[in-house]
Amino acid sequence: MLQDHARGLAADAPGAPLGWTGGMPRRASVRPAVPVPPAALVTARGPRSARRPASRLAAVPLAGALVLALGGCGAAGAVGRMTTPADARVYETAAEADGRIPAWIPADATGIRIKTSLRGDGAILEFRSPTPADRLGCDAAPADVPPPAVQDTWWPDPSPAASMSCGDRWLAAAEGDAVRAWLPQGSPALDL
Predict the structure, then answer these.
(1) Nearest Cα to 185, choosing from 142, 123, 121?
(2) Structural contact between residues 140 and 165, judged by C-beta atoms closer than 8 angstroms
(3) Phi-psi domain of 154 (left: phi exceeds 0; alpha: psi -120 through 50; beta: other)
(4) Does the keyword Membrane apply (predicted)?
(5) To the nearest 10°, the Cα dihedral for 135, 139, 140, 146?
(6) Tell me, what's the pLDDT at 111?
(7) pLDDT tens across 121-132, in order?
(8) Interval 51-98: pLDDT, tens
């Protein structure tokens, strides 16, 4: 049978409404029932109350230094691998880009997105154009072309297979009116 701790009544007794008391049952106090005289709290090393806070305060900086020493280098390395210095731009039209995009991109291109690595990891580029891909002035792509090293949320995963080589080292793939192109790793950063 369950007990209602607040009143000592059977919890399942008829007519005994239970109500939330707003707390948990109290635990027994760790303090002694008999008051301890202040002189008993003083030891050969000084009062207990004076020793405890100082030792706890000394432990906080020590723990912080330990966390930084053990985890700092790994965390810095992880952040360095997650972020790569890059420059990115979005242009609504080729005219808005004002010469900052490769010359092989047609004048009717829209929705131009470009991202270049500042560490020489290449670049990625995407645009839409009604100009057919075979009229972009590109050649056939070489065999065994590596995928781009630069990535972004708008870039497809997996990367498209290169079917064209355009302009100065750009590798490209067309799908409908969308063209995605990239510069291979080791290419210099673009001036966007």
Answers:
(1) 121
(2) yes
(3) alpha
(4) yes
(5) -110
(6) 97
(7) 899 999 999 999
(8) 556 666 666 666 666 666 665 555 544 444 445 688 899 999 999 998
Checking if the pLDDT of 28 tops 90, the result is: no
109-114 contacts, C-beta under 8 A, 24 or more apart: 113/88, 113/89, 113/152, 113/154, 114/88, 114/89, 114/90, 114/190, 114/192
H helices of 31-188, where?
48-82, 94-97
Where do we find the tokens 């080589």? 165
Residue 48 corresponds to which tokens in the numbers above?
């207990």
Provide the H-helix boundaries in the chain: 48-82, 94-97
**pTM metric for this prediction:** 0.56
Specify the length of the chain in residues.
192
